[in-house]
Design brief:
The protein is an alpha/beta fold. It is built from 15 helices and 18 strands. The longest helix has 17 residues. The radius of gyration is 23 Å and the shape is globular.
Length: 541
Amino acid sequence: MAASLPSEATANWWRDAAIYQIYVRSFADGDGDGTGDLAGVRAKLPHLVELGVDAIWFTPWYLSPLADGGYDVADYRTIDPAFGSLAEAEKLIAQARELGIRTIVDVVPNHVSDQHAWFRAALAAGPGSPERELFHFRTGRGTDGELPPNDWVSEFGGVPWTRLEDGEWYLHLFATQQPDLNWAHPAVRHEHEDVLRFWFERGVSGVRIDSAALLVKDPALPDFVKGRDPHPFTDRDELHDIYRSWRAIADEYGAVFVGEVWLPDSERFARYLRPDELHTAFNFNFLACPWAAGRLRTAIDGTIAEHASVGAPATWVLCNHDVTRTVTRYGREDTEFDFGAKSFGTPTDLALGTRRARAAALLSLALPGAAYLYQGEELGLPEADIPRDRIQDPMHFRSGGTDPGRDGCRVPLPWSAQAPYAGFGSTAEPWLPQPADWSSYAADRQSADPQSMLSLYREALRLRRTEPGFRVAAGSGAQQMTWLPSAPGVLAFTRTGGLICVANLGAEPVELPGHTDILLTSGPLDGEGRLPQDTTAWLRN
Ligand code: GLC
């Protein structure tokens, strides 16, 4: 019997979903070996149901030597044995779906692992072979080919070329273990279309596309010239044709895409979200924005306008597995996120950062569109200091040891305050060390505390689902929110459904705008019922 067509409301779930990112390695350890796994995720599904999320996005869970935490995929059709098996993944997808939670998987089309069968075959086949045409192999420059073929810089710092014993170099925009694929080759396109179908057939509802703007290179691989258009490897026009063919496949299954598109130019960004391309993309301009009312308002206005131009819903993201945890960043003097500015030992005021992170959570969850949460955000985890001899992230090593890397936001989660390793589940030491005070953030402790970050997120997500003020009027499109007049340093807006959101980033407490009920606040009002600094309120009108 043919499956019945989803109702429009169900089909549009992704337009205002709350999507929870799971970094499997650090979420929950089901078999006690120190590494998170699918059994751990299955055991914690009730946490996600209670939190109230609509979908889970899994960072790569495929077979991988984990040179870049799984973003070095050796085989897309096999689950890494450290995490489980394909049968367990299928069971997890089905079990989550029964609980009302959809699954999004991560596809990494720009590169594969150097252990992928294609790359091994390319190494074995040697220079000039058809196997090497799937990648970017070149001879070097200099009298003896001893210099890299061009002057590009790796996204992780350093030279993005590695030379082999046979004299050829291969391109890797990220780590040495992540050779870039040649997207001009039809087999590369065909294979990825097949991988999409493989996961859609297993019931996943969406795919996150890693490094989505980097796949296509200028075939001549010319030196980089500042300001010259098009860029030799970023945001090239040929990409849109690839995503149009992906979209046709997703449409067959009613599945959706979210692209990792880091592009400051909003017009160029919006091109990826045209109706026959990707459904959504991460909002990194908002994520990187400092905790400052003017900058946030500009980012929000820019977001709404760029998405309206193509009819796509916005996404709102505060953190992920690549960036500094919010409570740490917002407690710093400079609250903007910038990969290039990361350094060891930046001072932070965690109480201040936590207050702001609570306010930012309510601000972002009130905005029209989909919201992404990164595991541990709902627990208010800070960025951890990882002892240098335990750092694993290639970004740290490729920076020559100056960049602390991204491990500080990837520390195994604390689930229960009394259990070993804060209840992560390990009987052996977890793959990354947990800070000494980790158990004070444990989910079981926060669950019992109505003032905790976890209680705030639960209540906010519950209201997002049930409160009529969040409803989107049919056809309201871009007009889903309107700014209200407000004092300097205050962001106040109303949604077409009636919700009012006020965030006070200014130094002085402010009166709440007219309302009938206070639905939720990120912190207490002052003695006169005013909204203090670094506090957000949701009001019903
Ligand atoms: C993306 C991922 C990041 C990874 C990189 C290379 O930016 O989010 O974690 O290191 O791509 O795949």
